[in-house]
Structure formats: C-alpha cells, structure tokens
Amino acid sequence: MCHSRAAAEQVKASLTAWLEPRGLRFNEDKTRIVHVEDGFSFLGFDIRRRVDRQGSGKLLITPSKESVKRFRKRLTADVRSMHGANAAAVVFRLNPVIRGWSAYYRSVVSGRVFTGLDHHVWHLTYRWARRSHPNKSRGWVATRYFGKFHKSRQDRWVFGDRDSGAYLTKFAWTKIVRHVPVHGGASPDDPALAEYWTERRRKKKAPPVDEHTARLLRSQGGRCPACGEFLLHAEHEPRSPREWEQWFMTVRRVLAKQHIVEQVDGQDRTFYRLLHAHCRRQILAGKAVHQP
Ligand SMILES: [Zn+2]
C-alpha cells in the first residue's frame, strides 16, 4: 500500500501527542508496524485509521473493547461486594471509580460508551437495592433509592441515599473533551514544530471535577482562602483509570466546601468556598490558620 508509510507516521505523531502528557513515549524497538486500517490496541485504547471517500485518513481512538469489558466486570464485583452495606457506602465506593474511568477516557469516548456503562450501573444498583429489601415491591425500591438527586439535572433515575442526599455520579455527566487532531505530517521530532507541541501540552485540560467545584476553584484562583496555598496539587496528569481514581479519592479527602451566610444590609447572603479539609478543621477548632 503506497500510503501506508504516511499513515504509520500520522499514527505515530498522534499517539506521541497522546503519550507525552501521560509521561510515556514510544519504545522504538518494541513498536510493531501494523496495518492501522486493521486497528490495534494500546494502553487500553483501540486505535484504527479510517479512510474516507476522498482518501484522507482519520485516526479513531476509542476505549478498547477489552478495557470496557474488564471495567464492567469490575463494577459488577464492586457492587456485589457491597451487599449488606447502605446506599451512602455504595455511593462513596463507586463515585471515584466512575469519575476515574470517565476522566481517563473523556477525550476519546463516545457518548454511547458512557450511556452503556450508566445502564450497567443502573442494573447493578437496582439489583443491589432489590436484594437489600426482598420483601418490598419494585415500586418501593425505585422510590427509595432512585430520584432527582442531582438538583440541576432532569434525571429521576439517579441512585442516591435519602438520608445524606449523597448520590451516584453518571458517566454521561463527564464532559467529553475532543482530542485536537494532529495536523498532517506534524512530527514531534521536527525542531521547527517544537513550539507547536509545547503549545499543545500547555493547553492542559481543566481538572474534571464537578461544575460547582470547578467554578469555586476558578473564582478562588485555585487557592485556599485560609492558608493561601493551592488547593489541588498534581505532579503530572494521572496516567491510568486507577491513578485517576486515586486522584479523586485524594480530592475528596483534602477539599472541604464551606457554606457561609453573611449579613449584607440586613439581608442574608449565602455562598460557598473551598478550603483544605485540614484548614477547615483548624477553623472549626478555633485555631488560627498559619498564613505563609
Ligand atoms: Zn488551606
């Protein structure tokens, strides 16, 4: 095939753009030359090149079928292990798992993959709820555990805990960030293009936290109002769904949201701010927070 070499170069350039922010690079000795039209799997991604009628190729990167299958099994096992626990514990356990996977794949996934996983989780949690209450009706179970827990979404099938208001996040709620296709033959090895790649790396995606947290982070310039330090630290972007999962668990542990009510001209004004959980604890204990 006359275009196969150019196609291979295009694939390599695109993949390098993918790998670099993840701190990975091609090992030339181990790089297999394959017909990319046939596709191949790599780091949990399925990579294939589709040629349109005009003959120009487009690289398609999706979560690999094997990864999706494995992940569905993992979710099944997780929910099954929560038999006997309460709804809040299920939410606490699954949310970082769902967020982690969504974050890793958010730039390559199709809406259909996310929706499919949401259906899967729905079935798992519904079955979990039915098992927890064998003597109750389907209707009772549905009303008890599913509802419009997320205030700004018209979705009455969100799994949640009525007592605490905690609810399960959905894959489909993660915003899909489109991967900017690499221009023609742009190769990261070409020094003239170095700037182009630096620019690409610089345009780091915003952390995939929920919208409210993202808004507060932006308005606070990413800093804790109590100590003045940055609220989130990451040496590099997480490089796997598991690392993302860990990252979300850390975020949950270190960030605290504070609800503040202020009197302005005799009127109650209410707002939120983000603090380090340990700074918040110090404030609650009546201790001064050290400003650097
Ligand atoms: Zn702080």
TrEMBL record:
Residues 1-47 form the Reverse transcriptase domain. It comes from the Bacteria. Transmembrane segments: none annotated. PROSITE patterns: RT_POL. Signal peptide: none annotated. InterPro entries: GrpII_Intron_Splice-Mob/Def, Mat_intron_G2, RT_dom. This is Reverse transcriptase domain-containing protein. It comes from Streptomyces marokkonensis.
